[in-house]
């Protein structure tokens, strides 16, 4: 095993349960990320600091709600961006965000690196593809659903993948109100952006760590080859062997060829002798599409981090 990720266990794996089919059924009316960025950020004396361009969330190992932990502020005249903690905010409004007088901007004069389990919702989620692991579909994120809690926090609840989200962002709000929201709960999705995919692989509570063999096979079939290989690399070899055998042979071959030799040996070695022999023979031959990138035509390459200096 060459991957630095812990392997997904083969035992006690169950399909992720649906927390709710639509956040609006059990939660307050959602706020939309596209409408909760762009505000002016003011310090305690009313001076303009910059504008909100992104919100961050940590996907760490604790159970429970996922709250916005920091805001990314773009400053004027080429000044470095600021990544400010939620504790610095006294009022997060629709048009302005006001910082606490107790918060010292001098200690946050430059952008701080993201924590290992932290993602940016605009950069890493909005307008990317996600895999709905319950509905087993690949969908594009039109918006990100948040709710405001009773103690003035923003909680991440899911992503909107319906056309209503697109219309809302185009300013066609009245038309969008006549369309039902199509929201995938956060606990039921896998991100395909470079940062999102990596963080979820390293976060034990993410959906990818709680899929059965059938769910993993559906996920692998919908990811690009590189990402699918990374999922199998952290999966118990016995489970991974079942996933490969259940997949289309061309997909299985592409994914195995993208993996480290040690990982491939572990997976093939966990197969029944007859299957293992066929796969060793197949992998021993030159690939049919030698020299071409192994991306299935229905899957977009995952988004790479561009533009922002933070990682």
From TrEMBL:
TM helices/strands, residue ranges: none
Sequence ranges assigned to domain Magnesium transporter MgtE intracellular in this UniProt record: 209-283
Q: Where is this region: Disordered?
A: 1-27
The organism encoding this protein is Mycolicibacterium hodleri
InterPro entries (alphabetical): Mg_transptr_MgtE_intracell_dom, MgtE_N_sf
The organism that produces this protein has a lineage beginning with:
Bacteria, Bacillati, Actinomycetota, Actinomycetes, Mycobacteriales
Q: What is this protein called?
A: Magnesium transporter
Pfam families in alphabetical order = MgtE_N (PF03448)
